[in-house]
Amino acid sequence: MKPDLAEIADPEHTAIFTQECQGAVVGPNAGLAVLAEEARREAVPNIGRLLPAGRDAGVTIVHCLIQRRPDGLGGNQNAKIFAIGSGVDIAPGSPGASLLPELGPAPTDVVLRRSHGIGPMGGTDLDATLRNLGVSTIVAVGVSVRIAITTLGMDAVNAEYRKRHKWCLRTSGVPSCDSRL
User: Fold this and answer.
1) CATH class, range 29-170
2) Are the beta carbons of 20 and 62 closer than 8 angstroms?
3) Which residue among 1, 77, 134, 161 is least packed, with the fewest CB closer than 10 Å?
4) What is the dihedral sign for C-alpha 124, 56, 101, 87?
5) Helix (H/G/I), strand (E/B), else coil: 62
């Protein structure tokens, strides 16, 4: 049986997630300058158009951000990925730990922060928040498809959410904005 896409994407139980769309990842002083430059050229404008449309349709918008203490206490140290942006300030309240201003947050948006891990489902109130809001379908957007979006997708599926993601950044072999189930 073919899924009913109108039912799956009903705004009443759908949330759009921005994953790490913050200064330290895609801002002018990001840890990976090449990724940030490409993201600001294509992904950020696309996400900037998607979010208002989602809000207007009544979709819940959730911004998932990473922050770390300046001394790194309590943050992951167990993989190379955590050292990549080690010189970038993602202290709570810093521009690096803040959502890009052009994406919000709007008063109706939910902002969740984590201080460890590579995905927002662990170590945050994300799952409980979504269940309390009646969300069962997640549309994930961001720029780190190979790590952050993939981790979010796997964690969401394991938690029994329906997930769609929108790849909005050209990476090797992946066309821009290629929707996949």
Assistant:
1) alpha beta
2) no
3) 1
4) positive
5) strand
